[in-house]
């Protein structure tokens, strides 16, 4: 069993930056692929970024490409999401997810473990 806890959310102005962190505990496996997803009120949960178990491969949603960077430190069981040039439309609850495999899928239904979410609010 794996527990994921997100942190780092908050309120920022448009154009600002935030760094989200996801700490994994329990029976973790460094081979797990990890992903970030987000959900705004009244919307479906959407893919943001994912990273393979090795960290060699990353994928980003078109909406965040060039602005967000996902990274991982397997020794510390931490996955981060660096968010730059934030826009009001980035406002959402951001969720960390892990799957029992190394491939960095972009589909939420491929992930097995989820954090509680952290709120990111970007003001205009």
Can you walk me through this structure?
This protein is mainly beta. Helix content is 0%, strand content 49%. It is built from no helices and 11 strands. The chain has strands at 2-7, 10-13, 18-26, 34-39, 46-51, 58-60, 68-73, 78-83, 92-98, 113-114, 118-123. Strand 4 and strand 5 form a beta hairpin.
Q: What share of residues is helical?
A: under 10%
Low-confidence segments, ≥5 residues, pLDDT <50?
none
Strand content: over 45%
Q: How many β strands by DSSP?
A: 11
Q: Tally the helices.
A: 0
Largest sheet: 7 strands, mixed
Class by helix and strand content?
mainly beta
- Tell me the span between the first and last alpha carbons: 40 Å
The topology string of helices and strands comes to: EEEEEEEEEEE
Strand and helix map with partners:
Elements: E1 2-7, E2 10-13, E3 18-26, E4 34-39, E5 46-51, E6 58-60, E7 68-73, E8 78-83, E9 92-98, E10 113-114, E11 118-123
Parallel strand pairs: 2-11
Antiparallel strand pairs: 1-3, 3-8, 4-5, 4-9, 5-6, 7-8, 9-10, 9-11
Descriptors for this entry?
single chain; 124 residues; mainly beta; 7-stranded mixed beta sheet; 4-stranded antiparallel beta sheet; 0% helix; globular
């Amino acid at each position: 069993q794996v527990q994921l806890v997100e942190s780092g959310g908050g309120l920022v102005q448009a154009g600002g930056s935030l760094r989200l962190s996801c700490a994994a505990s329990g029976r973790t496996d460094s081979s797990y692929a990890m992903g970030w997803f987000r959900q705004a009120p009244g919307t479906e949960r959407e893919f943001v970024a994912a990273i393979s178990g090795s960290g060699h491969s990353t994928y980003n949603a078109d909406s965040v490409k060039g602005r967000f960077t996902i990274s991982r430190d397997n020794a510390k069981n931490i996955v981060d999401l660096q968010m730059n040039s934030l826009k009001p439309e980035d406002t959402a609850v951001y969720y960390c997810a892990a799957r029992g495999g190394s491939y960095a899928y972009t589909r939420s239904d491929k992930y097995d473990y989820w954090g509680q979410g952290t709120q990111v609010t970007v003001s205009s």
